[in-house]
Amino acid sequence: MNETDYQLHLVEYDFERRFDERVAIEWMQENWSKSFVFCGLYAATIFGGQHFMRERQKLDLRRPLVLWSLGLALFSIIGAVRTGWYMLHVLNTSGFKQSVCDQSFYSAPVSKFWAYAFVLSKAPELGDTIFIVLRKQRLIFLHWYHHITVLLYSWYSYKDQVAGGGWFMTMNYLVHSLMYSYFTLRAAGVRVPRHYAMIITTSQIAQMAMGLTVSGLIYQWMQEGHCPSYLDNIMWSSLMYLSYLLLFSSFFYQSYFKGAWGKGSKGE
C-alpha cells in the first residue's frame, strides 16, 4: 500500500487535521499528576456514596444509564475504527515490530486526535461507578481498581509518547465498544444472551495477555535501540496488565463456571 492508497482508504477529517498534538502533549507533561487528584476524588465519592446510600432506597436511573452507556459505546466504536485503520496501515507497511515500537500514533493523521481523546476519556469514564453506587449494585474490587490504574497509567504514558501506545489504545477502544454496547442493551432492558457477556470477558482477558506480551517485547526491543520507552514505564505496564490478567481470569471463572456448577446453567 503506497501513500496514495493510504490517503484514499483513510480520509482525515477536518477536526482531526486541525488538532495540535504538540499542545496536548505539552499540557499532559505539565498536568499528568492531576490524575492522582481525580482518582482521590473518585475514591472518596464512591466509598462515601456507598455509606450515604446504605440506609436509602436505590435509584433507578435507567434512562440516564442508557444515554451514558450509549455515548461511551459510540465514542469507543469510532475510536476503534479510527485507530484500528491506522494500526492496519502500520502493520501493512512496516510490520508487527514497528507497530509495537511506533510513536506515530501520538502525532500521525487521524490517530493523534483519538490518542488524546483516549487518555482524556479515562477521567469521565469514572462516572460508571456512580451509577453502581446510586443503584446500590455490587461494587467489586476489579471495577474501581481498573478505573483508577488505567487513568493513572494512560496519563503517565501519554506525556512520554512511549512505544506500545498504539496497541494499548486500539485494543481498549475495541473492547470498550463491545462492553459499552452490552451495557446499553442491558440498561435498556434488552435480554442479552449469556454467551455475549462471556465473549466480552474473554476479549478483556485476551487484551490483558496481549498487553503483557507487548510490554515484554518493548523491553526486549528497547535493548536493541528500536523501542523508545523507559524501564519504569515497562515495569508499571507489566504489573498493571499482569494484575488485570489475573483479576479478569478470576472474574471469568467466578461468573461463568463456578456459579454455573453451583446453581446449574442459567441465563442472565
What key phrases describe this protein's structure?
mainly alpha; disordered N terminus; disordered C terminus; ELOVL6; fatty acid biosynthesis; transmembrane; endoplasmic reticulum
Describe this structure in words.
The chain is mostly helical and 268 residues long. The chain has one domain (15-263). The protein is built from 12 helices and no strands. Helix 5 runs antiparallel to helix 7, helix 10 (165-187) runs antiparallel to helix 11 and helix 11 (194-222) packs antiparallel against helix 12. The longest helix is centred in the first third of the chain and has 33 residues, at 62-94. Mean pLDDT is 91; it is low at 1-8 and 261-268. This is Elongation of very long chain fatty acids protein 6. Its main location: endoplasmic reticulum. Belongs to the ELO family. ELOVL6 subfamily. Pathway: Lipid metabolism; fatty acid biosynthesis. It is a multi-pass membrane protein.
Write the layout of secondary structure elements.
Blueprint lengths: L2 H7 L4 H5 L2 H11 L2 H20 L8 H33 L1 H6 L9 H11 L6 H7 L6 H18 L6 H23 L6 H29 L8 H33 L5
Query: How many domains, as an integer?
Result: 1
Which runs of at least 5 residues are low in confidence (pLDDT < 50)?
1-8, 261-268
The main β sheet shows up as:
none
Distance between the termini: 46 Å
Radius of gyration: 20 Å
**How much helical structure, as a percent, in the residues?**
over 70%
Work out the number of β strands.
Answer: 0
Percent range for β-strand residues: under 5%
Mean pLDDT across every amino acid position:
91
**Could you spell the SSE succession in H and E letters?**
HHHHHHHHHHHH
| Inertia-based shape | globular
